């Protein structure tokens, strides 16, 4: 146990590197982030394979990573083949509508799919007055909170569905919380965006394209492979068929999409390369942290609703939200003498202990917006925005300037009103 606790340090070092080095040593980080991520991963891999003898943990994690990156890579490739142009001024109201539509779409195409599909047109639409807060609210709503109504929306909910939670349970039980969170965020965004909008000089409007089609879409046929990727998420057996279908869909999309569309989207492989390497490091180095959480889940007092909501939320903010959901679901069900591996037990828990499942689901999805690494789309959105020239907040600035100031009070209100 002591050795495994010490092995949490590579994870902490990687998080601190992601948080600090891009700000303090940008050039060094750009050249060496892959070396840092891989080196820290090797330490953990060596321990579990050569010392601990539980190499299966590495194998299992690499399988999970392969599923994760196959989905992210495929959605990135296919969305890069769809060019959406919105002409005219990006007014605060229009931004609110786009964010709301994206939040709804997140339940159909997933938070990752909707984010990849809409982030480029959102940036282009706001380019004459683009601020990083606009990207951060995009992360809040479309990258995270929006996708809390269906199992397709976010990986934790998909795990619940696989274990036995009915497909429509999330919509029936979380719709009011979803509406409250999205409405409050959109209201706050509108106030901030309206203030920013009013400061734009009239002369800057001359560069905004007003003529022609309001919305122009090219490569719309890519919605077919996009839909195939989303539907393939529901496939469980045989092993790796899901990932093969995703990657084949992406390959077909990339091969058949014209270079002109990729050029218009300023498409490059650099953002997905960065995310792939960093998240490989995150997946591997967080194994000891997840093991500690799993082995001590019952000590968290998961028979108390407040502990379930806040512990799951805090861990989701810094660890992968899918295993956090499963660990807390397992612990909470165990405290009520139910097994997560028995399907009718899960259905019983969803019906008779619904408030606990609601707390775990909300915490696992909503709190993913608290940091850049809380959910898969967050870092990808940040990376795409930066490659398009947006100066994004660093890890700590994101925390103290946005998530702690805006999200945390909302999450406290959600706790007070609904739990």
Short account of what is shown:
By secondary structure, the protein is mostly helical. It contains 19 helices and two strands.
Task: Describe what you observe in this structure.
The chain has 419 residues and is mainly α. It has one domain. 72% of the residues lie in helices and 2% in strands. The chain has 19 helices and 2 strands. Strands 1-2 form a two-stranded antiparallel ribbon. Helix 4 (55-79) runs parallel beside helix 10 (241-256), helix 12 (270-285) runs antiparallel to helix 18 and helix 14 packs antiparallel against helix 15 (321-334). The radius of gyration is 21 Å and the shape is globular. The chain starts with a helix and ends with a helix. The model is unreliable at 206-213 (pLDDT under 50).
**Strand sequence of the main sheet, in spatial order?**
1-2
Percentage beta strand = under 5%
Broad shape = globular
H and E string: HHHHEHHHHEHHHHHHHHHHH
Helix content: over 70%
Q: How many individual β-strands? A: 2
Mean pLDDT across all amino acids? 86
Structural domains: how many = 1
Estimated structural class? mainly alpha
What would you report as the Rg, rounded to the nearest angstrom? 21 Å
Poorly predicted regions are 206-213
Number of helices: 19
End-to-end C-alpha gap: 34 Å
- Report on the biggest sheet: 2 strands, antiparallel
